[in-house]
Design brief:
The complex is a heterodimer. Chain A is an alpha/beta fold. Chain A has a domain of 214 residues: Rossmann fold, CATH 3.40.50. Chain A has 22 helices and 19 strands. A 5-stranded mixed beta sheet of chain A has the order 3-2-1-4-9, sandwiched between helices. The longest helix of chain A is centred in the C-terminal third of the chain and has 22 residues. By secondary structure, chain B is α/β, with parallel strands linked by helices. Chain B has one domain. Chain B contains 11 helices and 15 strands. In chain B, helix 9 packs antiparallel against helix 10. Classes of the chains: A alpha/beta, B alpha/beta.
Chain lengths: 564, 345
């Protein structure tokens, strides 16, 4: 057999033994390095367990802490012993005890024989990689790192800062360009011998001893100096999460791994019985490894993790809703005043947009859901106290629960107003307001101006406060405000805009305005209010006498549009 | 705002007060250590990397078979259970189990901070350095991929992330029809009966004192606490912690000191994995239990305020509505956003 394997082991010895047997049974000589930190009885038991295999050797033990020189020293020692003892070995594979061959070792050997003289080692310059975590890319070759990153983080960080501040830099030995890559490689005898017997090796070793994470750069850099043909990828699949920690593969990754056609995977959860039982399995002798699916799955996860989704309970951006994009999942519409002018507005709007049109969700007496029921999707209750206990989350839940629908709800100055600021700041909200429409409702109720003077003053005050919120510079919703008098002059215009905004291209044309409340006597009512000392300024101008005819198209006034 | 008021709200003064509160709790736990008497001690079997489960139970013979089964499947190494004066054979049942150590007490559940003083003493003795799961007998923990990756595996991953605690949302499960009409035999899967839950009426705010995410909502708020939602049950829990002897739970497992341990929900960036505690409170035995509670008054600080709640539960109400969601596995809970994968795949 022309493939030799160096295995670094520090934990999960039963699984490591299993992996070693897989390599050895295929006829590969194996050299094992056991971490010096492992206690003697465990190590002896491990050695004994493998004593029946003739071509398994052990090398002297180094301390292998994460990101330290020990890992390189172990690989060097292992490779030296392997090359010296087995002259037939053409390729050396560096693996760990948690690596698992996914395909029969014979298929890997055949693949390597088809690529004689090729070194499989991921190796890129620091300028070309994006996966260094913590921002230390080139600095890892230029600074000194006497402190442990894991155990003495504060000292580590401060010492790095100090060196950056003072501008001290180490000299990189002549003849090499720093490269980085996965620590798991497969090199040819020729390249390895050249690296290990390089006349400058003492100098390189001294230099890399103080480089940060040398196991990701020593062989990667020196292979660039000595190799004839480098294939810059690792034959071992290993994925890292956005914090730079290796992903562990579990039983539920079986499909993914089986379809990948990769030769070796790292790292496998020791209790993943299914994986250890099923692999290695042949996936067609000449199939080439393909990590696209694995990459896609993990990259998607990465994007999901770093961006998140909003509006969902677990991702709903509380308590910093003012930042980013608001607290709801999808766009929705808030309609104020329309229902006072157009009887049965809910049904009319539903017919023209196909949207789910709720009544006054924030009404004082109860939340009027579109179904009219007491409980709505997701178990939302119509009880006003429940709603007002946390109105923002009430709306978040409502919008999230019906995110497949266009949702609209009616609003007005008679409703609970706690939600106003949140609506105005939500980029998903589309707020259409006809100001002063409450006056029409008062008029229709049959009360005289004297009776409802106080109530009118109150409604006007509340609506004015809402309009001011909508006009504030930090309001980010889509906002349209027209006065009642402007609306009744050209109702189709505003209605068409509203319908378009809600339903987009699915909206139907508003040819004819829906039947509206009779305005006969309304101007007189407003005048009476004025006479009572309550000028209804939000309604716009209504002159006493018969209503003017709707002016022909083209002459009408352009509405003020505010869509910040 | 006067400066001392501001100081109360900012970190240092609060942190100092909470530190003393934690010390007081530990002293209280130590003071009450003799309230529990050892019944069956198998703690010698605990090995260093076991995940331990701590619970206080009272008359739970109906739930225990499935409870033990569920958590054994999740890879719990040893159960440390305090029996609070059961009279239905709970003690003898537990004493027979090979992986259970049992303590008994007849003292007041309420005065022991709902069992936390008793469990605190066990945490202190046996929990140090272990991952400790603290649940009630009616809580079944699930989390993303719980069917393929057990708790040993989850805790190793949490260790690798440097996360010391794991949060879960309590999800009240209920049957279709009146609570008393459901049929349940000990050992059955309670979720076959309690198959329904409210999917999207949970809300959260920052807890005014402890600063953790305070989640409320769900079916109990909808049905029983609509008039006074502030009193609705708290649903956030931190049941799983890599324990240190200096830690202390405050009220149930909702809050824990030091307070950084209960920062287990990350609503903004969704980087933390969370689970769900399926709450099997509404098994048919609820009516009897509530009737007993009306007399015993052991489950809430201000029991008077909750008398109405318990008396309504004795009347076997129907919690189901046409919009209830049927529980059909872990994927649904993730899809609904009730639990999160965080940054794990």
């Amino acid at each position: 057999m022309t493939l030799g394997v160096v295995v670094l082991v520090h934990t999960a010895f039963d699984r490591a033994e299993q992996a070693v047997r897989l390599w050895a049974d295929a006829g590969c000589p194996v050299v094992i390095h056991v971490d010096r930190r492992v206690d003697a009885p465990t190590c002896q038991a491990f050695v004994k367990a493998l004593s029946d295999l003739p071509d398994v050797k052990f090398v002297p033990r180094f301390r292998c802490e994460w990101g330290t020189w020990g890992l390189v020293a172990a690989a060097q020692a292992g490779a030296t012993l392997l090359l010296d003892s087995y002259p037939a070995v053409r390729h050396v594979y560096l693996a760990s005890g948690a690596c698992l061959p996914l395909r029969p070792v014979a298929e890997l050997c055949r693949y390597l024989e088809a690529h004689p003289g090729t070194d499989f080692i991921e190796s890129a310059t620091t300028a070309d990689v994006s996966w260094t975590v913590g921002g230390l890319d080139m600095d890892r070759f230029l600074l000194r790192f006497p402190f442990s990153w894991r155990k003495q983080r504060r000292l580590f960080d401060r010492y790095v800062k100090l060196q950056q501040f003072l501008g001290v830099k180490r000299t990189i030995p002549a003849g090499i360009t720093p490269h980085l890559g996965s620590q798991w490689w497969c090199l040819t005898r020729q390249t390895l011998v050249a690296i290990l017997s390089d006349p400058q090796r003492p100098e390189y070793d001294r230099y890399f001893r103080r480089v940060w994470i040398p196991d990701e750069s020593y062989f990667q850099t020196l292979a660039r100096k000595h190799a004839h043909r480098i294939e810059s990828r690792s034959l071992t699949v290993s994925k890292f999460d956005f914090q730079g920690k290796p992903h562990i593969f579990y039983d539920d990754h079986f499909e993914l791994l089986a379809r990948s056609g990769c030769f070796v995977v790292r790292k496998v959860w020791p209790q993943a019985d299914l994986l250890y039982r099923s692999f290695p399995r042949s996936s067609g002798a000449d199939r080439l490894p393909n990590t696209t699916t694995i990459d896609r799955v993990f990259d998607q996860a990465l994007v999901r993790r770093t961006r998140g989704r909003h509006g969902l309970f677990m991702q709903s951006r509380f308590p910093v809703m003012d930042r980013e994009n608001g607290f709801t999942a999808t766009p929705y519409s808030v309609l104020q005043g329309f229902d006072a002018i157009i009887p049965d507005f809910q049904n009319w709007l539903r017919k023209h947009t196909g949207a789910e049109v709720h009544g006054h969700l924030f009404a004082r007496e109860r939340a009027h859901f579109s179904t009219g029921e007491a409980v709505f999707r997701g178990g939302l209750a119509d009880h006003p106290k429940l709603r007002d206990y946390n109105p923002q989350m009430f709306l978040t839940n409502l919008i999230w629960g019906g995110r497949e629908h266009d949702q609209c709800f009616l609003f007005g100055p008679q409703d609970a107003q706690d939600i106003c600021w949140m609506l105005a700041k939500d980029t998903n909200a589309r707020i259409m307001v006809v100001t002063g429409a409450w006056a029409l409702a008062l008029f229709r109720s049959g009360a005289t101006a004297a009776d409802c003077r106080t109530q009118a003053a109150h409604l006007q005050q509340v609506e004015q406060a809402f309009v001011q919120i909508l006009r504030s510079p930090i309001a980010r919703a889509y906002i349209r405000i027209v006065s009642l008098s402007d609306f009744v002059r050209a109702p189709c215009d505003m209605l068409q805009a509203t319908v378009d905004e809600i339903a987009g291209h699915r909206a139907s044309d508003v040819q004819v305005a829906p039947p509206m409340m009779d305005l006969e006597g309304f101007a007189g009512f407003l005048q009476d209010l004025k006479n009572q000392g309550m000028p209804p300024f939000l309604t716009g101008e209504f002159s006493v006498g018969p209503m003017p005819e709707t002016p022909p198209f083209g002459k009408r006034k352009q509405y003020v549009r505010s869509d910040k | 705002m006067p400066s001392y008021v501001r100081a109360r709200r900012t970190g240092l003064w609060l942190a100092y007060r909470l530190r003393w509160k934690r010390r007081r709790l530990l002293y209280r736990i130590w003071r009450k250590r003799r309230q529990i008497a050892v019944h069956t001690d198998r703690t010698g079997k605990i090995s260093t990397d076991d995940v331990l489960l701590f619970a206080t139970v009272r008359n739970e013979i109906v739930r225990l078979p499935h409870f033990l089964d569920h958590y054994r499947k999740l890879g719990i190494g040893h159960f440390l259970i305090v029996d609070n004066a059961s009279d239905d054979g709970t003690s003898s049942y537990l004493a027979k189990q090979p992986d259970v150590s049992l303590w008994t007490t007849a003292q007041s559940y309420r005065l022991s901070r709902f069992g936390m003083d008793w469990l605190g003493w066990l945490h202190l003795q046996f929990g140090h350095g272990h991952w400790c799961l603290t649940v009630d007998a009616d809580e079944l923990l699930v989390y993303p991929d719980a069917d393929t990756r057990d708790l040993r595996d989850l805790t190793v991953w949490l260790d690798s992330q440097g996360v010391p605690s794991f949060g879960a949302l309590m999800l009240d499960m209920y049957p279709k029809g009146p609570l008393g009409a459901a049929r349940y035999q000990p050992g059955d899967d309670p979720l076959a009966v309690l198959a329904w839950f409210d999917a999207g009426n949970y809300h959260h705010q920052r807890h005014p004192v402890y600063g953790n995410e305070w989640i409320q909502g769900g079916v109990r708020e909808r049905v029983f606490f609509a008039d006074d939602p502030r009193r609705a049950p708290t649903l956030n829990k931190t049941p799983l912690i890599r324990w240190h002897w200096r830690y202390a739970y405050v009220s149930s497992t909702h809050q824990v000191l030091p307070p950084h341990l209960h920062d287990v929900f990350d609503f903004e960036h969704d980087t933390l994995m969370t689970g769900v505690l399926l709450h099997t409170k509404f098994l048919p035995i609820i009516a009897d239990k509530s009737a007993e509670e009306l007399v015993r008054r052991q489950h809430f600080e201000n029991s008077d305020l909750y008398q109405g709640y318990h008396s309504r539960l004795t009347e076997s109400p129907d919690l189901w509505s046409a919009l209830s969601k049927r529980y059909d596995g872990l994927a649904t809970l993730i899809e609904l956003g009730l639990m999160s994968r965080g940054n794990r795949d």
